[in-house]
Amino acid sequence: MTDQIEPAVVVVVAAALYDTDGRLLAARRSAPPSLAGRWELPGGKVEPGETQERALVRELREELGVEASPVARVPGEWPLKPGYVLRVWRCSLDSGVPAPLQDHDELRWLAPADIWSVNWLDQDVPAVKSLSED
Ligand SMILES: Nc1nc2c([nH]c(=O)n2[C@H]2C[C@H](O)[C@@H](COP(=O)(O)OP(=O)(O)OP(=O)(O)O)O2)c(=O)[nH]1
């Protein structure tokens, strides 16, 4: 037998969305209690049979009410809880104004100088660092 069982890893896709002034969109989680109040890049889990890019478009539509397109994957991936990894794409905002419709209770556009002014989820810190270095 040459078949190998791949470990099942759930990919969480997230967006680096920038406005025309170069500010990054951060979203404050409203649930679960262990993560509520902490800030993240908007996104969510890829569903079975879904591509990562389509998942990202769907999540941004559901969570923020916007149409957005993935433009470029940010190199790397970051471990979340066991069995989950975070992958990030730079996205363009095609239409709509982001609103905290689902999973979040506040959104904030962060200028580069203010990028560390919010309490990012621990797991997002290396991803956000990577965005500033990229
Ligand atoms: N969306 C997102 N989730 C993150 C980030 N960092 C991080 O640890 N997570 C965690 C929180 C959740 O445990 C998991 C993603 O779950 P989610 O609740 O956003 O995904 P979802 O919309 O598909 O969730 P569900 O309600 O369908 O279960 O990854 C991040 O930057 N963005």
TrEMBL record:
<comment type="similarity">
    <text>Belongs to the Nudix hydrolase family.</text>
</comment>
<keyword id="KW-0234">DNA repair</keyword>
<dbReference type="GO" id="GO:0006260">
    <property type="term" value="P:DNA replication"/>
</dbReference>
<dbReference type="InterPro" id="IPR020476">
    <property type="entry name" value="Nudix_hydrolase"/>
</dbReference>
<dbReference type="GO" id="GO:0008413">
    <property type="term" value="F:8-oxo-7,8-dihydroguanosine triphosphate pyrophosphatase activity"/>
</dbReference>
<dbReference type="InterPro" id="IPR047127">
    <property type="entry name" value="MutT-like"/>
</dbReference>
<dbReference type="InterPro" id="IPR000086">
    <property type="entry name" value="NUDIX_hydrolase_dom"/>
</dbReference>
<keyword id="KW-0235">DNA replication</keyword>
<dbReference type="GO" id="GO:0006281">
    <property type="term" value="P:DNA repair"/>
</dbReference>
<keyword id="KW-0515">Mutator protein</keyword>
<dbReference type="InterPro" id="IPR015797">
    <property type="entry name" value="NUDIX_hydrolase-like_dom_sf"/>
</dbReference>
<dbReference type="GO" id="GO:0035539">
    <property type="term" value="F:8-oxo-7,8-dihydrodeoxyguanosine triphosphate pyrophosphatase activity"/>
</dbReference>
<protein>
    <recommendedName>
        <fullName>8-oxo-dGTP diphosphatase</fullName>
        <ecNumber>3.6.1.55</ecNumber>
    </recommendedName>
</protein>
<dbReference type="GO" id="GO:0044715">
    <property type="term" value="F:8-oxo-dGDP phosphatase activity"/>
</dbReference>
<feature type="domain" description="Nudix hydrolase">
    <location>
        <begin position="8"/>
        <end position="134"/>
    </location>
</feature>
<keyword id="KW-0479">Metal-binding</keyword>
<dbReference type="InterPro" id="IPR020084">
    <property type="entry name" value="NUDIX_hydrolase_CS"/>
</dbReference>
<keyword id="KW-0227">DNA damage</keyword>
<dbReference type="Pfam" id="PF00293">
    <property type="entry name" value="NUDIX"/>
</dbReference>
<dbReference type="GO" id="GO:0046872">
    <property type="term" value="F:metal ion binding"/>
</dbReference>
<keyword id="KW-0460">Magnesium</keyword>
<keyword id="KW-0378">Hydrolase</keyword>
<dbReference type="GO" id="GO:0044716">
    <property type="term" value="F:8-oxo-GDP phosphatase activity"/>
</dbReference>
